[in-house]
Structure formats: structure tokens, C-alpha cells
């Protein structure tokens, strides 16, 4: 076995940090993030597989259009907003400002929830939008049905992502990844029930999304409640939203950090984009 003894000195006169330790720290943060992103796409693939098995070409095409709209007008924006905690929470945690960690979580919850005010109408009336840009009427109808049901789960998807980011940036990485994996496995079962057994087609895929995201949010919330004392924070501060979270100055500061992440994710979602 080869042992790496390479060290990196950040400042002259300071003791170097072993390269192996740096690599372990990087992997500890990146692997759970990669896992969460990949499993999200796996759930979309599961939806397409079940609808493709039971529906016609129009229904299958509708799943693709629906997923595109959900990503561009919902999930990608929520993920970008929550990504600001990679900076805020990690810095506050490293500085021992545990109360600020909870404040950033509350601001994230407020901002990401407010986005539903404009996301909701776009997804609810997605059939009309698709027809307006010349999409097939049958495909637009099925995509609209899929999006309308899925819309009811977006709140829980955003809250689950906020909690996941909050935990990851305080070195609690394993359980959020396990929860995401468990929910993806169960998503297959929800699709089997709603799409195959109940024969709900595209709407069934939407119901499967809602159940999966609600379950993931519930499990993440339960784990956050459990580990709040370990994080030196009160359970009330991490599970509720207090008045300070609505201060305009704090929200503007958070949005300024989140905006570049939102733009980057949206650009990568565009068809034909290269990373």
C-alpha cells in the first residue's frame, strides 16, 4: 500500500496539512452532494420508465416536458437558493457562530418558499403555456396534469433540500445521503402503486413525486430535530421561522449570494449546454 506524506502549507511557518486529509474532507462534502443530485435524476428516470410502460408516446413525451418545466421553473431555482448555505453555514459553523447557522437556514426557508408564489401559476397553467408555444395538444394536456400534481410537493422538496444543505455544511453527511437513497428506492414502489396499480398515468407519476418529497422532508426534519443539540442549536431555531428571518437586509444579503448559484444551475439545465 502506498502512503501519501505530501503536505500543503497555507502560510509560511505553519504546519502543513496532509494531502490525504484534504482529499478526505473534500470527498466527505462532495459525495453526499453528488448522491443527492444523481438520485433526483434517478427519480425522474423512474417516472419516465413507468409511464413509458403503461402509456403511449404522448404520455411519455409529456413526462419529459413536465420534468423540464419542473427543473427550469422550480427545482433548479430551489437548489440554487439552498446552495448559498454552502458558504453561509459552513463559515458560521467554522467560526463557532451556531446561532447564525440557524438564522441562515430560516432565511433560506423564507426565500425558497416565497418562490412558490410565481412558480405555482407557471406549473399549474403549464398546459396553456405549452399550447402557446406550439406543442402538441395531447402532450400538453398530459404534461399539465403531471405538473399540477407535482406542484403540491415542491414545498416539501425545497424544505428537504434546505435541511440537507444545512446538515452537510455542519459535517453531518451520512444520514442525509441515506435518507435520499431510501426515498429513491421507495419511489419505485410509489410509481408502481400510482402508475401501474391505480392506472393514473402521468398524474400517478406526479403523486409519486409528492409522496417521495414529503417523506424525504419528514425524515430530514426528524433527523434535524434529533441532532439539533449536537449542533449546539435549539430545536425551535432550526424547526421554526422566527421574526428575524423576514428582515429585508438579511434576505437581500442571502439572495446576493444565492443568485450566482441559481444562474449557474439554470444555464446547465439548458438543452445542449456543455459542462
Automatic annotation (TrEMBL):
Pfam family, one: MatE
Cellular component aspect of the GO annotation: membrane
Residue runs in coiled coils: none
Ranges annotated as spanning the membrane: 110-133, 145-163, 175-200, 246-267
Domain of life of the native organism: Eukaryota
InterPro entries reported in the protein's UniProt record: MATE_fam
GO MF annotation terms: antiporter activity; xenobiotic transmembrane transporter activity
Keywords: Membrane, Transmembrane, Transmembrane helix
Family, similarity comment: Belongs to the multi antimicrobial extrusion (MATE) (TC 2.A.66.1) family.
PANTHER family recorded: MULTIDRUG RESISTANCE PROTEIN
Protein name: Uncharacterized protein
Organism: Polarella glacialis (Dinoflagellate)
Amino acid at each position: 500500500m502506498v502512503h501519501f506524506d505530501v503536505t500543503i502549507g497555507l502560510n509560511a511557518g505553519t504546519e502543513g496539512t496532509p494531502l490525504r486529509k484534504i482529499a478526505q474532507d473534500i470527498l466527505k462534502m462532495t459525495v453526499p452532494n453528488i448522491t443527492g443530485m444523481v438520485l433526483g435524476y434517478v427519480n425522474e428516470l423512474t417516472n419516465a420508465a413507468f409511464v413509458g410502460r403503461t402509456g403511449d408516446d404522448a404520455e411519455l413525451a409529456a413526462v419529459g416536458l413536465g420534468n423540464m418545466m419542473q427543473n427550469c421553473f422550480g427545482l433548479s431555482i430551489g437548489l440554487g437558493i439552498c446552495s448559498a448555505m454552502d458558504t453561509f453555514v459552513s463559515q458560521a459553523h467554522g467560526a463557532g457562530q451556531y446561532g447564525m447557522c440557524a438564522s441562515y437556514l430560516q432565511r433560506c426557508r423564507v426565500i425558497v418558499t416565497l418562490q412558490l408564489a410565481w412558480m405555482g401559476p407557471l406549473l399549474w397553467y403549464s398546459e396553456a403555456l405549452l399550447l402557446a408555444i406550439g406543442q402538441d395538444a395531447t402532450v400538453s394536456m398530459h404534461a399539465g396534469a403531471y405538473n399540477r400534481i407535482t406542484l403540491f410537493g415542491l414545498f416539501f422538496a425545497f424544505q428537504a433540500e434546505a435541511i440537507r444543505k444545512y446538515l452537510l455544511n455542519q459535517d453531518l453527511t451520512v444520514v442525509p445521503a441515506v435518507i435520499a437513497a431510501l426515498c429513491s428506492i421507495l419511489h419505485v414502489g410509489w410509481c408502481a402503486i400510482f402508475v401501474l396499480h391505480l392506472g393514473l398515468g402521468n398524474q400517478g407519476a406526479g403523486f409519486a413525486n409528492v409522496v417521495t418529497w414529503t417523506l424525504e422532508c419528514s425524515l430530514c426534519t426528524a433527523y434535524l430535530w434529533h441532532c439539533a443539540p449536537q449542533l449546539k442549536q435549539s430545536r425551535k431555531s432550526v424547526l421554526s421561522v422566527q421574526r428575524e428571518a423576514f428582515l429585508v437586509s438579511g434576505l437581500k444579503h442571502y439572495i446576493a449570494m444565492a443568485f450566482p448559484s441559481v444562474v449557474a444551475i439554470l444555464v446547465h439545465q439548458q438543452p445542449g449546454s456543455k459542462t
